[in-house]
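Appendix B. One record, verbatim.
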Amino acid sequence: MPGKPAPIKKSPAKKVADKAPEPAPEPEPAPPEAAPAAAAPAEAPAEAAPPAEAAPPAEAEAAPAPPAEDTPAAEGSAPAAPAEAAAVEEPPKAPTPPPPPVPTSAPLHVSVEDVNDSSVTIEWKSPETIGDSGLDGYTIEYCKDGTTDWVVANEALTPANRFCIKNLAAGDLLHVRVVAVNPGGRSEAGVLSEPVPIREIAERPKIRMPRILRSRYVRQVGEQVNLVIPFLGKPKPVVSWLKDGQPLDTKKVNIRNSDNDSIIFIRTAQREDSGVYEMAVKVDSFEDKAAVTLQIVELPGSPASVKLVDAWGFNAALEWTPPKDNGNTEVTGYTVQKADRKTEEWFTVLEHYHRLSATVSDLIMGNSYSFRVFAENQVGMSEKSAVTKGVATIQKTGIVYKPPQYLEHDFSEAPKFTTPLNNRAATVGYTTKLLCSVRGSPTPKIEWLKNQMVIGDDPKFRQISNQGICSLEIRKPCSFDGGTYTCRAKNAQGEATVSCKLEVKQVILPDAEKSK
């Protein structure tokens, strides 16, 4: 038991000396509940330590160091190792608490959707910043004009962006505000810009913009502007005009309002009258707006500069820059003209041209030219132009005609008969002809033969050769003139022959005629 320590028979030193040293087994860790029990016996050896000091010094020096597990003190100190390890371990830190929830930003664009003699309907847009806490809903509050007593209109939070406040008294003038609520609390209030009169609206204001005014309305400088814009609303709406977000100057622009329309009138329009005209009609808290874009335009200025870049052959290259004043509308093109320095007359070479550079061609050799450029927009062509400082001179160049070299064609050709001789029959005493045709280059020499014998200058035969037509005339042939006739053509390229047979017949008279 913890209260009764064990008796000590020997001192620790003597006990160690008597025992032989043995390897000590590893101590088993005692359970946490046994730690106090082991601590009580450890005190007893501590009190009995003086007898051990009385032992002889030699014997004490000879004794080896006692193992920790054999001494009672070591047994009592065994559980100390886990205690030291536990002291080294740091206790776990407490988790960081989350940041407190933050209210949302104020609801946006609080406006009146509808109103009558006993209720008013309010609408708004969600807050711009909601945060991680989310949004629980909205609270709608109102108070009468001239008081500070705010009344909550909804018993429970509403998640919608629209709410109808009912059971109101006709004729009251109410201020309304909307508050967003989340776990962080109430946001700043989104307040209605003007108090709402509780009364029946016969007809809401509505602008009926004409179709022609729904897009950009364009007029030229000096023209008259007269726009009629009808609207609806009962009781009579209050009409107001703004130009580019600023109040309209009635000295420059005349405005006339009636029960059902508004007229904007400009007698002589100028460039500075261009802008966005915004019309608003209002009945109590209800309002309708519409905008008209008016654009006053005029002719553009001339191009800022024009330059002659190069001139070559019969061409000239030009470049120019857009005009500084476009006439309050887009530049749609350019017109390019040229003028001969001799005549000084301008002729249009390019019209409705869209680029900022051009090449003018078909210029006359030996002439010098100036060029000018006009700008164009939807109103027309600029009154002034930009003229080139330099001139383009088309140089004269010497022209030497070199006739083409052609190879002479060799027309040499050997003789060839194109029409042969035909066999013929002739009558004694009647002149006859033999005909044929031949071609060749150079002109072939013609010879006639009879029975392979050359016919010379025999006067009975007449030989004719003209333009390739060869003929042999036989004058009053006799029976001996029959035979084979040949025509032979010869030149340097060769020769050709053609033959036919000629038969000369004798006329036989009857006996009666002979007797005469």
